[in-house]
Specification:
This protein starts with 10 loop residues before the first strand and ends in a 13-residue tail after the last helix. It has helices at residues 58-75, 94-104, and strands at residues 11-16, 21-31, 34-40, 46-48. It is an alpha+beta fold and 117 residues long. Strand 3 and strand 4 (46-48) form a beta hairpin. Strands 1-2-3-4 form a four-stranded antiparallel β-sheet, with no helix packed on it. The chain has a domain at 11-48.
Amino acid sequence: MESRRVRLGDVIDDYCPRCRLIMNHGVVSLVGDEVKKVRCNTCLWEHQFRRGQLPKSRSKAQAKLFEEVLKGISGSKDSPVPEPKPPEPPPQSAHRRLYTIHRAIGGKSSGKGPKKA
């Protein structure tokens, strides 16, 4: 049995780059007998007909780049790496320093906390 020719409006399967899945698409544009553009029936986005081919995986490319970076780091083990210093506490504001000094010399309470007898 011969398959019939594709016509405008026919529903075919294709990869949708927006949905990132192979979904049903309606044919929007034809040149001769070739499908050129389709519209996803799920997200209604028009794009070129991809013939159901999935895009190249990005994770392989990322893994390859990650390995290159690790090679560069492991090659530099000859030079000693200084240990990081512990983070310094943030500087106190002038008001906070005065309050701390005032409390240390037994000055008047600020009114916060329980009252002393």
